[in-house]
Amino acid sequence: MSRLGIFVDRKTLSSAGQLHALIRCRDTAESLGHAAEFLFPADIRKIPRMDALFIRARTDPLNVTYVAARIAQSHGIPVIDDPDSIRICSDKVNMYAHLQRSGVRIPATLFFSKREINPGRVREIFAELGAPLILKEPSTSFSLRVEKVADPAAFLRVARRFIRMSDWIVAQQFIESRFDWRVGVLDGELLYVCKYTIPETGFKIQDQVNGHTVYCDVKSIPAQEAPAQVIELGIDAARAIGDGLYGVDLKTSNGDCCVIEVNDNPSLEGGEDLCYPAVYERIITHLLGA
Fold first, then answer.
1. Does residue 67 fall inside a structural domain?
2. Which of 48, 81, 148, 190 is within CB 3.0–4.6 Å of 265 for a Cys-Cys bond?
3. Structurally, how many domains does the chain consist of?
4. 182 shares its domain with 255
5. Domain check: are 218 and 144 in the same one?
6. Is the pLDDT of residue 106 over 70?
7. Please, which residues bridge with residue 183 across strands?
8. What distances in angstroms separate CA 153 from CA 119, 216, 276, one per listed residue?
C-alpha cells in the first residue's frame, strides 16, 4: 500500500468547498488502495516517508510549499507541483518567456524595469500595445496586483507602486471578454475544461468591490463542447512549462485565442471538475501508479 501526503495549511481549509475537495481527494486515494495523510507545515519532516506528495496550499518559491516540493524532489518522491513549475509559474516574466520561446500565442506583452518608468517610454508602450492595457506585478496570484490602465498618468501611478515589489513589471495588451477559459492539464494531457465568468463589476476573475471580494462564476464544460483551439492551445501552453498539473487561462476574441497565464497546481474546489469525475483518480494514478 502506497502513502500519499496531501500538503495543506490553515488557509487551504478556509472554505467548505476546499475542505470537500480535500476529502474527495483522500477518499479517492483510499478507494484505489492507497493510504492518504494530510500534512501541515509542522509535519514537513514526514515527507520523506511518503510515496508521493500532492501540494494543496498556495505555491510560491518564498513559502513553505516550495520547501516541501524540494524535500520531495530530493528524496525522489513524485510531487505536484514540482519545484521547477513553482518557480516558473510564480514569476510571470519567467512564465511568459517560456511561452514565447515555445511559440505559444499570448497577448502582445512587454517587460520593463524601474529605469523605464518615465513619460516618454510609457507613451511608447501605449503606442505599441494600445489603450487600455494591463499591468501585472510578476509575483501576482488570484488576480492581485493586476490592474487595467487607460492613460500614461494611471500607468505611472500603478507602475511606481508595483516596482516597489519587483524589479520588473509586465505590460500586456487588453483582451476584452466576459469570461476566461480554464484548461486543466496533467502530464501534457487534457484533465478538464471550464469557464470562469468575469463579474460584471470588473475585468478579472477575482476583484475587490466596495471592500468585498467578488469571485467569478465557474461552469464545467464537457470537452466536446469546448472549442478545439482552446484545448489545443491550453495543452501546448502547459507543455511549455512542464509535465505537472496546470490550469491554463485563455481568452477568445474575434475568432482568435490566446493564453493569459499558466497556473501551477490549480484550484479544483470551485466545480471545475463537475463534468470530469475522474480528475482525482487521474492525479493520484499519475503520482502513485495504478
1. yes
2. 81
3. 3
4. yes
5. no
6. yes
7. 193, 248
8. 8, 29, 46
Residue 36: count of CB within 10 angstroms of its CB: 22
Amino acid identity for residue 11 in this structure: K
CA 146 – CA 134 distance, rounded (Å): 7
Average pLDDT over residues 198-224: 69
* Domain-terminating residue out of 126, 145, 173: 173
> CB atoms < 10 A from the CB of 47, how many?
21
**Do the Cβ atoms of 218 and 271 come closer than 8 Å?**
yes
- H or E element, residue 213: strand 212-215
Domain of residue 159: give its range: 109-173
The pTM is what?
0.91
Q: Cα–Cα distance between 10 and 31 in angstroms, integer? A: 26
Contact 129, 169 (CB under 8 A): no
- Is residue 94 predicted with pLDDT exceeding 70? yes
SS3 276: coil
Residue 62 lies in a domain: yes
The torsion of the CA quartet 170, 173, 176, 181, rounded to 10 degrees, works out to -60
Q: Cell 510609457 maps to which residue?
A: 122
Whether residues 189 and 145 fall in one domain: no
